[in-house]
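re: ur question from earlier - yeah i can do the single chain one, its not a big deal. heres the input i used so u can compare w yours
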Amino acid sequence: MKANLLITLSGLAVFPAVQAQMVDFDDYGPLRVYAQSPIQSINHSPLLRSGFSLPNDQKEWYITANIGSIWSESDVLLADYYQNTVSGGIKWQMSDALMLDVNYRWAFSADNHLDSLTMWFHDVFGFDQNGRQDQAKHQNQIHSDEYDIHIDDLSGETLENALTAYLGYQLLQNEHHGLSVGASLYYKAVDSGPFAEDSFAQSIQINYSYKNGQHHVSSSFGVSFIEDTESISTNNYNSRFTTLGIGYEYRSGRHGWLAEIHRYEGLVSWDENFSDASHEALLGYRYYLNSSAIEFTLVENFENMDNSADIAYTIGFRKRF
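and the output i got, formated as tokens:
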């Protein structure tokens, strides 16, 4: 009896140590949040990515859900609608140097009732409502007399239905520094509605990351090449545009606090708001489990208030195996 009790107590003493060894706070890099700007969000915009590779042959699957509220008013266009996105995919470190990331995105419009929250948020933090207060809440519309666009209700319409494959190559990696390059192939197929389109796009990007203890910094610069297709105004998109992102994470135990800034070059020339670059500020929280992580992100536009989501929220789950 005493022997059995001694074995049991010994097992309990060892159990916390075993549990501690099982905790695996992998480096998940930047937040997994796509562009929220109206034009860039329905086209191929490179992600802010880590400059570090995964361990050889490690895989990560992920899923994210996003809700956003779009507001843009110019001399030729009024865009006041909601966008919602579900995205999922898998990353695979095929070798020490090569990483493949395959992602599917579906974006659609449906009333997510963010107008009241958006206006409250802007009031609390002293942001200008930018004319939104003059429109009725919970509209889902795009109008332009100049381009003969009269959409009173976008609800149920698909904005994007796309598959992206990214191949990354590791140039440099050591304890503190990671440098990689990558190229993406993007295919979009929206069969019907005002955003109907069947097109390809490509991009190239370079990623650099630095980490030192609890501090992690990531940066990416990318160029997208857009196929010569027509946008909703029947005018063409620009043939290419650039993306710049930088992010910082402070990690403490199972908690990660993240801040990022994304800049997207304007993608069209027919509207003064959408021709200017958009800037998005992201604040995120990541909770680390043993071999997975949960992410919550708030996105707010700044600088050009008419070329991004007024506000957007993303929740994501990532799992390493």
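The longest helix spans residues 2-22. not sure if urs matches, ping me
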